[in-house]
Amino acid sequence: MAQLTELLSDVDADVSDISTILRTDPALTARVMRMSKAIMFGGAGAEVTDIEQALARVGFRNVLGLVGAAGVTQLAPEPLALYAVDIDMFQRCSLCHAIAAENLARAVGEDHQAAYIAGLLRGIGMVVLDRAVAETITDGPLLVPTQGEQSYAEMEQRLFGLTSVDVTRILMDEWRFPEPVVSAIDQHHLSTPESLENRLACIVNVAGEIAAAAGHGLPGDEVHWTASPGKYEVLGLSLEFWNQLCGESQIRFADACEALKAS
Q1: CATH number listed for the domain at residues 76-262
Q2: Secondary structure (H, E, C), 182-199
Q3: Rounded to whole angstroms, how far apart are CA atoms 110 and 115?
Q4: Shortest CA distance to 83 belongs to which of 207, 221, 255, 201?
Q5: What's the rounded Cα separation, in Å, for the pair 128 and 124?
Q6: Cα separation of 240 and 199, whole Å?
Q7: What is the pLDDT of residues 152-188, one digit of tens each?
Q8: In the chain, domain spans
Q9: How far apart are CA 115 and CA 119, in angstroms?
Q10: What pTM does this model have?
């Protein structure tokens, strides 16, 4: 996805450049080909014989979203026991958050690809911390939030001395994602006055609220979606516009879920 993000910003890029990147992951390539047959991409079950044909069908505008939707199924191969989150819930929450962020970014004139990636991958640090606990505690119950902890971040800070957002930032830096994506994830809880100056971080935060309103939010994140009402002014969002975005995101999310079934 980091390579695709850079490539899709190049006006001289063509389908062969994209297919070369995708072929480095045969399993992902096969999933993208199957998903391209979904009705949402005009396939209606038609035969797709190679990755170039699949990419031509979905178009450059949709390729990052398609790869992201396919890739999200690989983010959490096992339930996140530390957070009491099953696989389906994590995947749906990640995908809905990404779609809502992309829609909102388009509406307010920000980088929709960066917003999509930030919404999709912002929770990957949770996967890392969950695996770390599972490998450490093998003969007893996993540690869970204590009474009084309102968010995953409070639990993570107590257990590990850092949060899953910190871990995600480390990974995104290591994977060489663009700085705006990394900083948006790092600041999307809007926990400091300075974070409100990051419009992309505000977008990811509002997108989390939209996903939660659609029934696809993680319970330990809810406190972050209501903590900074100034985000609406930063983005110029009215209640009417917010409701419109909720409806549009739910429609696109339903279409994406149909495409995922094909994979």
Answers
A1: 1.10.3210.10
A2: HHHHHHCCCCCHHHHHCH
A3: 8
A4: 221
A5: 7
A6: 20
A7: 999 999 889 999 999 999 999 998 899 999 999 999 9
A8: 1-75, 76-262
A9: 6
A10: 0.85
